[in-house]
Amino acid sequence: MSRASPSDTPTATVALSFASAAHTYSHMFVLFFATVVLVLEHQWQMTYAELFALSIPGAVMYGLAALPAGWLADRWSAAGMIAVFFIGTGLASILTGLATGPWQLAAGLTAIGVFSAIYHPVGVPWLIKHSRNHGRALGINGVFGSAGTAIAALVAGGLADLWGWRAAFVVPGLLCLATGVAFMLAMRLGYIIEGEGEASPAPASAASERRRAFTMLAITVVCSGLIYQVTAYALPKVFEERLFDFAGQSLLGIGGFVSICYLVSSLTQILGGELADRFPRKAVYVACQLLQIPIYGVAFATFGPLLIPLAAVMVSLNLMAQPAENSQLARYTPLSWRGSVFGVKFLLTLGVSSIGLALVPLIHAATGSLDGLFVLLGLSASISFLAAAALPRERATLGVSAESGK
Fold this sequence. Notes:
Layout: H1 10-29, H2 32-43, H3 48-53, H4 56-64, H5 66-75, H6 78-97, H7 102-116, H8 119-130, H9 134-163, H10 167-188, H11 207-242, H12 251-278, H13 281-300, H14 307-320, H15 322-331, H16 338-352, H17 359-367, H18 372-389
């Protein structure tokens, strides 16, 4: 085995660049419909609740498909799965843009969810494998995912205003396909080679600690995933209802403010990653959960432009916790089945939590607004805080990898 760290090789640099692009696409494509739905309300003469329900199967598959994706990455090839991600997501998005009715649209959105699910259980463990400072690497990589979330509303709104809602799916789909072709070419030319070993092996941990960590993290990832999913899908509608005329009448105005929130919050992941490398990861994780609770209470009572910075803080605290969360999970997971374990994580955080998305149209249909969602988010943050506080205390264990700690 080469003495060089995977994180120091040109191969790893090229591979992780494509993984970062995949992270952007993964978040971006699943959120296009959250903005496009505002156009279809008028064009298809359907209610917001009826149209939003079409996206729920895709949101659920965004989590459910993570488990087989992670398993295939462990058993076959992580790079190969990323190639499948690019090609599948691009084709699914193009077909969604060509839909002529609700059932075709639902099928396209579901396919986008299936293929977009590949990134997280494959790309995140791959990044951890190649990095020495896990927190910093995860924080930087997380910016790309947040950028995808940030520009989703802006891209969809801008393309829909310029060329119609179909362009919001077709144009990005073509870009994703082109990236996939470039990725496969890079693999064929030998710029991307999957190596063995890990740049910074995790210390061994006792079986009881692993069981406790997995149990508590299962609770926190469901709650934090629910918060992320509901916020990302509902924020365009919340801004439309609460900003009044401040955002203007165009989707571009609403999408622009959503994008500002996620662009600002994306940078906080770098801060979260640095904190996770410099301080106990459990302490960083607990603090991020605790600070979210009062923010949702303030946001519940806020209308007008002040809601924009509040929303940015809400998203920032949720995302700032992710480097600490992922590095803790990696610490207790052997490399040989890390893809499968991260598949379970994203099954919980994106799949099971996506069931909560059903509450978005239900609450809106029942009350005529999305005010009740802030109560749901505050409750989820409270439960996540209690579970995070119950995580095992980190011990400085030297010299033994988690692979030997099974």
